[in-house]
Design goal:
mainly alpha
């Protein structure tokens, strides 16, 4: 996220929080409100309107960038499909030796994502007056940490399910990326969005698409190729459109997130295209030493990602544990 956008979002959030606090203070006066509170209300409202106007201007620029990146994704997907039709069938390899660390990585990502989301939720509740006492925050934080420790541990049954799924879905090694493991925890959402946005847009009964297009897209769906599914979703979901009635702050945050998502998607698509156009012969893929070298490199990368996620888990745990102090400090100042 660009620095100037981050500044706009931070200032707007601060002004909105200050307005919430001020409105609560004014509500405490049953009779006429003190003039200085009205003056403060007008000043804060003016400051907020200025930041919202900046956000609208930034949102227009960011929306264009999002749509330009989406178009680049669409073109890269078309390029991949072009090369995919010409490439030879290569032997798929079952990467049993990376399933377990891959499972651990996904569990770590799920735990980190959960802790991060809960931290943001609880902090937002604190900032908007959602808790009356520090004990409520402490109870919420404790429950979050306990669940985070218990729900994302290695579970034998879950791991066996993971192995079964991996056996049913062989991975084409030259196209395999560690990011594919990290993103897999969102696969249910991808399947849902694919059914909602893509399949009706290419099915001969519900669109003007030709049969070959439908076959190509449906093959991606059957193989659960989540990278290509995400690219098709970006294509058929359409461009990001501005709505003057929407909250510019929320819209700007959404546009920034979407731009980051599309940029990452474009990079992964480029790597996939690079794999396809590279001159890999079946003999090279059948070379045991070459295969072993690649698997060891991927396994090492996964381990590094697990370590990084573990550090982030500790980071978010510490932030969560500090929320009680944050609550007490905030309201002691008030």
């Amino acid at each position: 996220m660009e620095h100037f956008i981050k500044v706009i979002l931070e200032r707007a959030a601060r002004f909105r929080n200050q307005l919430v606090v001020l409105e609560k203070k004014m509500a405490g006066y049953l009779a006429e409100k003190p003039p200085e509170l009205w003056q403060e209300l007008v000043a804060l409202s003016t400051d907020l309107e200025k930041e919202e106007e900046k956000a609208r201007e930034a949102l227009e620029i960011k929306t264009r960038q999002v749509n330009e990146t989406r178009e680049a994704v669409r073109q890269k997907l078309a390029e991949y499909n072009h090369w995919r039709q010409q490439m030879r069938e290569v032997e798929t390899l079952f990467l049993a030796n990376i399933v377990r660390p891959g499972y651990r990585l996904k569990q770590a990502v799920r735990q980190r994502t959960f802790l991060e989301g809960e931290y943001n939720r609880i902090r937002h509740e604190i900032e908007t007056g959602g808790y009356a006492q520090a004990e409520e925050v402490e109870t919420e934080v404790h429950a979050t940490l306990v669940h985070g420790d218990a729900a994302f541990q290695d579970d034998r049954q879950s791991f066996e399910d993971e192995v079964l799924a991996a056996r049913q879905e062989l991975v084409n090694f030259p196209q395999f990326e560690v990011d594919d493991l990290v993103d897999a925890f969102e696969q249910e959402h991808l399947v849902r969005d694919f059914k909602r946005h893509v399949l009706p847009s290419v099915h001969p009964d519900t669109s003007d698409s030709d049969v070959e297009t439908f076959k190509t897209v449906f093959e991606v769906y059957e193989q659960r190729d989540y990278l290509l599914m995400e690219a098709y979703i970006a294509e058929y979901r359409g461009e990001l459109a501005l709505d003057p009635e929407d909250d510019p702050i929320a819209g700007l945050e959404q546009a920034c997130e979407l731009q980051d998502q599309y940029q990452a998607l474009l990079g992964r698509l480029q790597r996939r295209v690079d794999y396809v156009v590279k001159d890999l012969t079946p003999e090279e893929l059948k070379d045991p030493e070459e295969v072993r070298r690649r698997m060891l490199a991927q396994r090492e990368e996964i381990r590094e990602r697990i370590q990084a996620e573990s550090e982030q888990i500790l980071h978010w745990r510490e932030l969560l544990e500090n929320l009680v102090k944050f609550f007490r400090d905030r309201f002691s100042e008030a």
